[in-house]
Amino acid sequence: MKRIYAFDFDGTLTDKDTLPAFIRFAKGGIRMAAGFLYFSPLIVLMKLHLYPNWKVKQQVFSWFFKGMEAGVFDRLCLAFARQNPQLLRPEGVATVKRILGEPETAVVVISASIDNWVRPFFDGFGGKVQVLGTQIEVADGLLTGRFTSRNCYGQEKVNRLTALYPHRKDYRLTAFGDSRGDRELLAYADRGFYKPFRNGETECGK
């Protein structure tokens, strides 16, 4: 039976959230601080579960990147990944490499982050890692600031995985996550690991 391994990205395979890290890389610390200060009321409401996560994320992304040329954005994403390999947890990278060496397996990274900057982190894996992230809209070569997919968070992670692998009885699923946004994916898996690749890793009960 085929084995699918699904990994969250931010906080699971990385040691921090890459959205603020990417914004700092692309726009600088002062610009990043100004933007997050501007959106701080909405961020607080989001943390209190009084405002949708995806709306805050899209508004923040739009504030920083709306109107940027798509080619410029993609070059920034590639440079960000190449210049920040230390963001990846070594044990997570080693686990992915080990899995890819096993027969009848597939590795999927399912992230709420924009897939443009997640995918380049796996360029050195021979195209064997599939990345399912939040996708952005481009019109006339420019970023509109809007998303073309649902924010890949919560149940949407399960939806994206089942769209790719619809025949659930044909494979065993192992999932790795670290936050509330991974809860549904961990519950859907045959085996789920919470906060892996660090001290205090736990396997979710079934």
From TrEMBL:
<dbReference type="GO" id="GO:0006564">
    <property type="term" value="P:L-serine biosynthetic process"/>
</dbReference>
<keyword id="KW-0378">Hydrolase</keyword>
<dbReference type="Pfam" id="PF12710">
    <property type="entry name" value="HAD"/>
</dbReference>
<dbReference type="InterPro" id="IPR023214">
    <property type="entry name" value="HAD_sf"/>
</dbReference>
<dbReference type="GO" id="GO:0000287">
    <property type="term" value="F:magnesium ion binding"/>
</dbReference>
<dbReference type="GO" id="GO:0005737">
    <property type="term" value="C:cytoplasm"/>
</dbReference>
<dbReference type="GO" id="GO:0036424">
    <property type="term" value="F:L-phosphoserine phosphatase activity"/>
</dbReference>
<protein>
    <submittedName>
        <fullName>HAD phosphoserine phosphatase-like hydrolase, family IB</fullName>
    </submittedName>
</protein>
<dbReference type="InterPro" id="IPR036412">
    <property type="entry name" value="HAD-like_sf"/>
</dbReference>
<dbReference type="InterPro" id="IPR050582">
    <property type="entry name" value="HAD-like_SerB"/>
</dbReference>
